[in-house]
Design goal:
Oligomer: single chain
InterPro entries: Glyco_trans_2-like (IPR001173), Glycosyltransferase_2 (IPR050256), Nucleotide-diphossugar_trans (IPR029044)
Low-confidence stretches: 237-271
GO molecular function: transferase activity
Family: Belongs to the glycosyltransferase 2 family.
CATH topology: Spore Coat Polysaccharide Biosynthesis Protein SpsA, Chain A
Number of helices: 10
Largest sheet: 8 strands, mixed
Strand content: 15-25%
Domain Glycosyltransferase 2-like: 10-162
Strand order of the largest sheet: 3-2-1-4-7-5-8-10
CATH class: Alpha Beta
Keywords: Transferase
Structural class: alpha/beta
Length: 271
């Protein structure tokens, strides 16, 4: 009987002046994971702190501006079977990573963190952001027939081999943000995952307050970028979905909770 081989994991951590938060965050990450820090040209010693706390960390620099570009650059560097998106501000709990991995091993292609399912929650979200997320969430579900509960949350994991489905642009350096370079990245990849028919599982997650510093998120300007993303992506051709790695004519509904996830069909390895 063949022994079970666990998938390897790459954790992508986008940073911009997060030196004060990294000792707490990096010390709690699994020792056997590949940690890729994608820095946005920090000026507070972020990279030096990261290397001191985690000597094996892989450091790369994004080639444009914005969280989306940083994540895309990290995805391109990852070598693990599974990619985990993790914020550097201490809001995401690293102890939840096994739940995301379990969801993927149970048959999901994409594991979506949610603060608004049983056992999820947030100690950080404001009333304005909660309302905005709820409205944007409703809009996406109505336009593309999805069933998301937490559209704009950035704690997600997926098999590395589905990255081409997201069709993210990492080419060309320059000061100007391009499509998907900002905080709209979560909405963009979530919608493209649905359009491609990926098997999506929602994983309960608790969002903690940022440890130090101030978020770069602007509720209004970034909210408008997300809104624009929703309308553009919802009207896009489904041609990419037909050419996706796992094309389906009947995308599965989002599954929630460990019991539902475990009932998904076994994931078949490709040669």
């Amino acid at each position: 009987m063949r022994g079970r081989i666990s998938p390897t994991v790459s954790i992508i951590v986008p940073t911009l002046n997060e030196a004060k938060n990294l000792p707490h965050v990096l010390a709690r990450l699994p020792g056997d994971a590949e940690i890729i820090l994608v820095d946005g040209h920090s000026t507070d010693g972020t990279v030096e702190v990261a290397r001191r706390v985690r000597p094996d960390i892989v450091v790369t620099h994004q080639n444009r501006r914005g969280k989306g570009n940083a994540l895309a650059c990290g995805f391109a560097q990852a070598s693990g079977d599974i990619i985990v998106m993790l914020d550097a501000d201490g809001s995401a709990d690293p102890s939840e990573i096994p739940a995301f991995v379990n969801a993927l091993e149970a048959g999901a292609d994409f594991a979506k963190g949610s603060r608004f399912v049983a056992n999820g929650g947030s100690a950080d979200i404001t009333r304005l952001r909660r309302l905005g997320n709820r409205l944007l969430n409703f809009l996406v579900n109505m336009l593309i027939g999805s069933d998301f509960t937490d559209l704009c949350y950035g704690y997600n994991a997926f098999w590395r081999r589905v990255v081409p489905i997201f069709d993210l642009d990492t080419g060309g350096a320059g000061p100007q943000k391009q499509w998907g370079d900002g905080f709209e990245i979560e909405t963009l990849i979530n919608m493209r995952a649905v359009r491609a028919g990926l098997r999506i599982a929602e994983v309960p997650s608790f969002e903690h307050p940022r440890l130090h510093g101030v978020s770069n998120l602007n509720a209004f300007s970034d909210g408008f970028r997300v809104l624009r993303t929703i309308f553009v992506e919802s009207s896009a051709s489904s041609e990419k979905a037909e050419l996706a790695i796992y094309p389906r004519t009947d995308p599965l509904p989002i599954q929630r909770g460990a019991e539902t996830v475990s009932a998904l069909p076994a994931f078949e390895e490709t040669a």
